[in-house]
Amino acid sequence: MISVNALEDLKRLSEAQADLVPGGVVYGITKEDTMEWVKYSKSLNMDVFHVGKKLSKNSTTSIALQEKRILTQEIPRSVYGTRLEIISIPIVDETDKAVGAFSMAFPRLHPVAVAFDGFAPVLAQMFPEGAFLCLTDLEQFVKVQSSQKFNIPSIKAGEKFENNFLSSEVIKTGKQQEKELDASIYGIPVRNVSFPLLDKDTSEVVGTFSIITPKEAAVNLRDMSSNLTENITGISSAIEELAASASQIHTNEQELHNSINEITKLSEDINEVTSFIANIADATKMLGLNAAIEAARAGQAGSGFGVVANEIRKLSDQAKSTVPKIKKLTGNIEEKVNISSEKSKGSLSSSQEQAAATQEITASIEEITTMSERLTEIAHQL
């Protein structure tokens, strides 16, 4: 019990301690059923009790006064709009008669709400892109905490949240919710993760704790990855066409090389024919010479045969004189063929190297494509 003579000292003590109580407190003194003195902590944004307020007979203070005993009760949200724990102590006069009560009302806060001011500033700075933290009850934002890199000015403590805010879904389901929002909501893409805060005794949802993080880098990464994939796909198609062309070039070079080898063989055959012509020319000349000798021996009777023999010798000389020209032409052909053959060999080798290089490039493109796909997966996970 509290003596009526100690009230002034009790008031001064309450005023000194009001702002030191974690979570806040409301002190009140009632005389019979009417409140005549009230002291709020500065941190409390509520106007539940005030001087002149009449208390019902079922209130904690009224019951404590009636029963002349210290009474503690937990008050549901439906009574004063917020959950409270109220302790009422009767005040007695010199005759030990209960004439009033001294009451203390503490908001019943979830442990996360009690510790928010301590951990929220630290937690907000731990995210590389920054974070925005907010605490709600069932209707409004209770506390908010921004980081140096990220803030949502439109969310303010004491304001009600809209039905489309993720906390509404958490309150309805009692389960953690997660949602990605595009730039139309807060100016940049964000990810909102919201957790239910449950009453330790009843397990009912009494509020939510949300962490909102910017997703701009992840979206940019996702777009870059998508563009990279498209570009790589185009390059890959071009490389495949190049590989097909290189393969065709290699085939053509192989056929050209084979044709040059055949021409070289024909040139060798021409040389053999030239040698054969030269041998025939020598034999024909020898035959004409013998015929001329025989015609001379025959005298006048063999004069016609001698003319024929002479013509044979001329043809032999003409045939023989043609042989060097044929050899020269054949030599030129061989020289050109040899040069073409060397070039063909070099071209064939180059086409083989091109084909091999194209295959390596194609393999590298496939690896880059795989990495791009993995990059896309990572971007979606961020």
TrEMBL record:
Domain Methyl-accepting transducer intervals: 226-382
Transferase listed as a keyword: no
Superkingdom as given in the UniProt entry: Bacteria
SUPFAM superfamilies: Methyl-accepting chemotaxis protein (MCP) signaling domain
Keywords linked to the UniProt accession: Transducer
One Pfam family matching this protein: MCPsignal
Record protein name field: Methyl-accepting chemotaxis protein
